[in-house]
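Consider the tokenized backbone below.
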């Protein structure tokens, strides 16, 4: 009698483990021309009367002083409150620097963004399936 009960508990416990989302991939900062480029992620608290979203920013800091040169919002992912929040997260997956002095960011869903490395302006979301930040 105990054996079937233990097997049932193991099956239920195992299935809830696989239902959770894996953590985001660690994207290491890159340094170029005296600046370090990295991400800042802001997750809203999702309180009852607040917008519920994940915002992803790209930051440029001076390597010597640590001073922020620019801080650009790349995109935000609005959440559907009827679904679990953790399965809706979309984090950056890669950050690279091309020969045109541009930063290229790819997120977990394959959306790509180009940012001017000198002034932080969003050049274009190359392929976006979520809400890109406004260009300015």
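A designed sequence for it:
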């Amino acid at each position: 009698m105990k054996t079937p009960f233990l097997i049932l508990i193991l099956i239920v416990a195992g299935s809830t483990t696989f239902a959770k989302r894996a953590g985001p991939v660690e994207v290491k900062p890159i340094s170029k021309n005296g600046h370090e480029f990295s991400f800042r992620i802001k997750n809203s608290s999702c309180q009852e009367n607040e917008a519920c979203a994940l915002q992803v920013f790209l930051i440029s800091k001076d390597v010597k002083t640590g001073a922020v040169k620019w801080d650009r919002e790349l995109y935000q992912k609005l959440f559907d409150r009827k679904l679990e929040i953790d399965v809706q997260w979309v984090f950056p997956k890669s950050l690279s620097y091309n020969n045109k002095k541009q930063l290229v960011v790819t997120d977990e869903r394959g959306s790509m963004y180009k940012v001017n490395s000198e002034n932080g302006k969003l050049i274009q979301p190359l392929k976006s399936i979520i809400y890109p930040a406004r260009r300015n």
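The chain has a mean pLDDT of 82.
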